[in-house]
Amino acid sequence: MAKYLQILLILVVFTAFSQNHPIDTLQMAQRIQYVSNPNPLDTLCIAEIQRAKKDIENGKIVFAQPFGFLFGSIRYEKELRQLCRQKGLQFEFDLIGCLVLEGQTQGCYADYMDKVIFYTYGIDFKAILHKQADSLFLFRTVSKNILVDYWICDERPRLPHEKNRTSDYLPSIVVDSLPILKKSGEFGGWPFIDLGFIVEKDSTLSGFLLNNFVAQLEENEKYKNELYSIAVSYMNTSYPIWVPGSIAGVPVRARNNVRLFFKKE
Length: 265
What we know:
By secondary structure, the protein is of the alpha/beta class.
């Protein structure tokens, strides 16, 4: 068994380098090797392994997706669940916490399930299913003209002069028609809004909405609707054309957001 694990580790690492993902897949291979012979004092890991073994004995093999703060979310979850059902697998998120005791290992349930899947279906099975699910998601999104959020795009909507967009901020809007006031102090400033809108596949804008309004001062609250109208007019006049967001190079309809500050000269 130990010799087989070493061969598996070599094959996984080789596959990783051929797919240009050496670090993540190498770590995965090492974790699979670890659950075959965990530290006897690693009680958290051992308990998760026992839980995995019990599920497998009951006919339950899980396609596990590690999930935690700022990682693990996938846009094609629906499609991946469907593919897993077709293969006789169950899809589940494996929650990874931010804090863990020294000497204890999280994620061993998923790692043990990965080990079983690799032995049963091949070392590239999970990667292939992820890719297939993402392709199905893209096909559904484009064929049904589904609206998506910008953060699930490979490339979010951007302005024509930008190579890529990494900020929600646009230049401030000068407002002389309203007596808005600036809040003084370190945490003060001019009122601002987060303006949501849809970037269509033809590069035009639609579906404006007010995501957030920060008045800074109570005196500015009454100008909320007027400032929103000014912001929409400003966008349609100054930034009417956007490069649409894309997935795998294919344009999609995407919700976008910008933050606009209002000020007086």
